[in-house]
Amino acid sequence: MTKNKKIAVVCNYALNPNRIGGMDRFYVGYDKKAKELGYEVEWYFLDYEPFYFYSRLTIFSANNQNVESFFLKKVNQENLRYDILVTHFLALCTSFFKKAKGEGIQQTIVVDHNPRPLEGFPLSKILKNKAKGILYSRYIDQFIGVSEYTRKHILKDYGFFLDKKTTVVYNGIDTSVFVKRIRENKNKFILTSHLRESKGIQDLLKALSLLESNITNQMQIDVFGEGPYEGELRRLTNKFNLAGIVNYEGSSSNLNKLYSEYAFLIQPSHGETFCYSIIESLVCKVPVVTTLEAGNVLSVIEENTNGFLFNAGNYQQLATILKNIVLGDLKIDKDFSLQIEKDFNLEKMVNEHIQLLCK
Questions:
Q1: Which tens digit of pLDDT belongs to each residue from 163-190?
Q2: Domain named Glycosyl transferase family: which ranges (predicted)?
Q3: Contact 162, 155 (CB under 8 A)
Q4: How far apart are CA 24 and CA 13, in angstroms?
Q5: Looking at the predicted structure, is the pLDDT value of residue 80 above 80?
Q6: pLDDT tens digit string along 99-147?
Q7: 272 and 115 in contact (C-beta within 8 Å)?
Q8: Residue 219, domain CATH
């Protein structure tokens, strides 16, 4: 047991009862495990209205204001004291971490989930990141990437001198809540994503626009998610006459059951650090069509074994893959779920994050 150490977890993440995904299950599992070990845990989220899933967590909501500023203000005004600070989805190497250390925090752990643009940062951003690494990395004790790709980019962005305090902890999922596919559900595709331009969903719509109507009329594509790019995606859907093929379903808290109703997941992203939807889909025995550079950031998709790959942004390649799936020229019949369950499970993720508290 610990000596009543107190943890603050600050997340630039809005909690939503209609979207209970991998990170939500991790937060609850982490909170439970830390408390079992004698830690006191308090959570700071971008936004939260109480709902049952999070009923056992002590949560403070920034009400969609800046969560870093909210945390520092609350700590200062209420004279709160924390031994350990853990962050998720925050920018790395900023003045926030210097200020947080000034409030008496002994150990700071940052988990980097942040995607990078496929084309890389402009020179001005590269130089700013290098300067921030020099100025503020000293106030961070451990950098955690959610994939090897992320770890490499932490070092590239902020300085290779951080190598010794930068490591990887893969995200995981609660495999017990996912329903496995038992039939093919031919030509029924699912896409789950935050709706923003970097997710590449516009490339899917362009790919569909290239296909003959006798192909697209056999397809159903359900898009689950919300985001600022939804209006543009709906405009393109109407422009390409795809309204009867592409359906926008909003957020869902039941994706763990829904994957099994589809033949393939489509993930045309331009930039990912982990990509929960791919792991979740594979656990459900649903193969994946995704991008070589971004969607396959974990290198878990093997061509013709558990999915098909195309170059990010190349909607002509995507169109060819989709056409061949509909024609029956591309098929996947193997059960590839067991290795994914072993490598990317929630318990493993929680335990590895908890172990960081002892370092």
A1: 999 999 999 999 999 999 988 788 999 9
A2: 176-327
A3: yes
A4: 10
A5: yes
A6: 999 999 999 999 999 888 777 889 999 999 999 999 999 999 999 999 9
A7: yes
A8: 3.40.50.2000
d(CA 340, CA 287): 12
pTM of the full structure: 0.85
- Name the residue among 70, 16, 65, 76 with its Cα closest to residue 43: 70
Give dist(CA 88, CA 274) in Å, integer: 13
Same domain, 157 and 10: yes
CA 87 to chain centre: 15
Residue 22 CA to residue 103 CA, distance in Å, equals 31
Report the pLDDT averaged over residues 295-322.
94
Contact 44/70 with Cβ under 8 angstroms? yes
Judge if 73 and 142 occupy the same domain: yes
Query: What phi-psi label fits residue 168: left (phi over 0), alpha (psi between -120 and 50 degrees) or beta?
Result: beta
Strand pairing report for 107-112 and 142-145: parallel
From the list 293, 291, 256, 261, the residue with the least C-alpha distance to 277 is 256
The verdict on 164 and 188 lying in the same domain is no
Look up the domain containing 272 and give its range.
175-342
Q: How far apart are CA 289 and CA 66, in angstroms?
A: 36
Q: Specify the residue for token string 């989220």.
A: 45
